[in-house]
């Protein structure tokens, strides 16, 4: 599934989301971004957050200490360039799936 991805602090005034791909299900879930694989099997917490520009995104904290931000885009074909907005229902579904992954891992410990 196509997502837009950012790793770092929400306080960064120059947040730039980049194209990435959410792959796999359950324990094999991961993000492919710039030839890197970000494993999601170690999700510590996940939720919806609003950034300074009022964009609702998924905030994913990993047990490694990394924090990633992502959302699922909805693309509308445009004349010169496509228009891309946040697909909030799809982003919320990703949050629920990652929350279930974190919960199932906690239950196994």
Automatic annotation (TrEMBL):
<protein>
    <submittedName>
        <fullName>Uncharacterized protein</fullName>
    </submittedName>
</protein>
